[in-house]
Specification:
single chain; 234 residues; alpha/beta; Rossmann fold; DNA polymerase, domain 1; 11% strand; disordered C terminus
């Protein structure tokens, strides 16, 4: 993948883009919510919680309950989740290893998820060593997606211009954040639960198979008259 002529940085979301973890994660969450008296199916849970930071998810659940969550709810659930991800086990998204192998520019991860979850999923799938030290989480204290702060922090650390940075996302929150950061964003819609139309509306160039990404990531100089499908705009 010859992208050295223009792109300076590749940014990947973690859940649903690098690792196929959304189904397992929301299955576990649904089971935990039942114990609180909240009955959701997995599809509804994915629609409500996918791509959220922890504070965003807490707000949604507490609105459902009508009262605050027990202090130990998320710590206890996360321990169960991490064990579930290891036991299943979670797998890499099909085709992502080939994409990463072909990259000739720096790459990092930007996620609303906790660092320990990424250590678990990326570790199980053998991807941790590719990104260790270059992982940005909403746990850092910066505002999570849909705010652009995490993306801009990553670009600054790599001395990459936002319009020479591309992002691969699978949620509207992630696409919104990348667009706000002035980055070109490619929306991965390979999973049945992904709303491809919503990703397009948010500003992404959408694709359904990781093998398609190589042809999409073709650098076009921002000074040239180009379509959003072939490179970053002005």
């Amino acid at each position: 993948m010859n992208v050295n002529s223009g792109w300076q940085l590749a940014i990947f979301d973690c859940d649903g883009v690098l690792v196929d973890s959304e189904g397992l994660t929301h299955e576990s969450l649904v089971n935990a919510l039942v114990e609180l008296g909240v009955d959701l199916d997995i599809e509804t849970a994915i629609g409500l919680f996918m791509g959220n930071s922890l504070p965003q998810s807490i707000t949604i659940i507490e609105e459902m309950l009508g009262n605050p969550l027990p202090d130990n709810f998320f710590p206890k659930w996360r321990e169960r989740l991490y064990e579930h991800l290891r036991a299943a086990p979670v797998e890499a998204v099909p085709g992502i290893v080939n994409v990463l192998d072909a990259l000739e520019i720096p790459a990092c991860v930007v996620s609303n998820g906790p660092l320990r979850k990424m250590q678990t999923t990326l570790g199980v799938t053998g991807l941790w060593q590719r990104f260790e030290g270059h992982i940005y989480s909403a746990e850092s204290g910066l505002p999570g997606k849909p705010a652009p702060d995490l993306f801009l922090a990553a670009a600054a650390d790599f001395n990459a211009a936002p319009n020479r940075t591309f992002v691969v996302e699978d949620t509207v929150k992630g696409v919104t954040a990348a667009v706000a950061a002035g980055m070109q964003v490619f929306g991965y819609a390979g999973a049945a639960y992904t709303d491809a139309d919503a990703l397009v509306t948010a500003g992404a160039t959408v694709f359904a198979d990781m093998s398609e990404l190589r042809s999409l990531i073709r650098w076009v100089d921002p000074g040239e008259d180009s379509s959003p499908q072939t490179g970053p705009g002005d």
